[in-house]
Amino acid sequence: MEKYLRETKMLDYSSENIQQLIRERSWNDIEEFERLKSIYTFVRDEILFVYNNDDTVCASKALVDGYGQCNTKGTLFMALLRTCNIPCRVHGFTIDKELQKGAMTGIVYKNAPGNVLHS
Question: What is the pLDDT of residue 55?
Answer without folding.
Answer: 84
